Amino acid sequence: MFRPLAVNVGLRYARSKRSFISFVSVMALTGLALSVAVLLFVLAVAHGFERELHERLLGVVPHFTAFGRDPIVDVEGALATVRQSREVERAAAVVVGNGLAATDKQLVGLELRGIRPGEYAPMIGQFIAAGALEDLAAGAFHILLGHGAIEKLELKVGDAVTVVLPEATVTPFGAFPRRKTFRVAGTVRTHSQLDERIAYLHIADAQTLFRLGDAVHAIEARVSRPLDVSETAAAVRNALGAEGFRLVTWFRSLGPLHRTIQITKGTMFVVFSLLVAVAAFNVVSSLVMIVHERRSDVAILRTVGGRTGLIVGMFVVLGFLITSIGAALGLVLGWALGVVAENGYAWAQTAWGLDLMSQYLVHRLPVEFAAADAARVALTAGALGLAATFYPAWRAARVNPAEVLKHE
Among 325, 322, 324, which Cα is nearest to 392's? Predict the structure, then answer.
């Protein structure tokens, strides 16, 4: 198969067995591969946090909540109004409030949520680690607790726990906090800080606990496009009546985290792209050394009629090969690093009792590789590496054959 002379010579130099040239090429290639691997791994971790936010946290946290300024009496009417929006996928009536879960040894703050199990099953069913939403029967006073709360309270399924509300009941003997004993029916586990405070009980039991009668506090909804939830929430608020309802979107609680992930991802790409740029400078230095080693070859080519384009082309081909192989190896190495880091962290957490992610909202190291990120990394490495070849190639084209060959 016909190939241009520049390509043939460039490939021949790439396969050179000269120890010095081979060593310099391998070092340049290794540096580029390591920098690409680190850049890809960092982007994969940032993308993993973004995935956890969208798939896990937003699977538990409602996309928007319509709170009644007074307890909502016409529950079915409010639900029907919310469900009329085309963007709303699911809606459920809830009773919400704060409380304490108490045992003989521990106290844990809870975000209590009274739900209808049938309405709420599609929303959190995938996060039930033990028990089932169907165990929340009306009048049974069963409760589902987050995995973190279960561990802090040292409870297991079937144990009794006392729920205390920050409201007092006045009796002839004085004011006492309102309390009720519940039976732990199951565990919810999202592998996030939500596990330390979430609690679900049947809506009828919650109405009894909060003394609401048949009313509820709010309507929670999931939408098809969480990032555009503000527009949907505004339309629903107008449909419900602005004076009677107050709408809160997920941006209030998780919006700062979402913005931080986006900013961090962009910043890390710029910062670690500089690492790739440093590796590209290594390509420059290695090609300059190769040009110096091959000065006699270049001089001979010039004396037999080799033009500037041929000289530049063969060193550009050599630099492109080094860059391409380095970038490809870096992508593979970055993928392997991500797999090992994600699984290795889970293993170390179990084997050694480490919890290095406890200060973050997500309690494990998420790694998610995106084709767009891999393409962006490869294009960045390729562009920087290819740009790095032009100066050595131009320098090779300026070699004076007479100066080189007069000592040969």
Answer: 322
Which strand (E) or helix (H) includes residue 271? helix 251-293
Closest CA to 394 of 305, 327, 311: 311
The residue ranking higher by pLDDT, 167 or 265, is 265
Q: If pLDDT is split at 50, 70 and 90, which confidence band does 302 have?
A: low
> Is the pLDDT confidence value at 173 over 60?
no
- On whether the CB atoms of residues 108 and 149 are closer than 8 A, the answer is yes
Strand pairing category for 107-115 and 88-102: antiparallel
Which of 222, 238, 241, 206 lies closest to 69 in space, CA to CA?
241
- Closest by alpha carbon to 75, among 92, 62, 96, 97? 92
Predicted confidence (pLDDT) at residue 100 exceeds the cutoff of 80: yes
How is 340-387 classified by DSSP, letter by letter? HHHHHHHHHHHHH---TTTTSSBSS------HHHHHHHHHHHHHHHHH
Distance CA 392, CA 386 (A): 11
State the Cα torsion 245-249-250-255 to the nearest 10°. Answer: -140
Q: How many Å apart are CA 110 and CA 125, to the nearest integer? A: 20
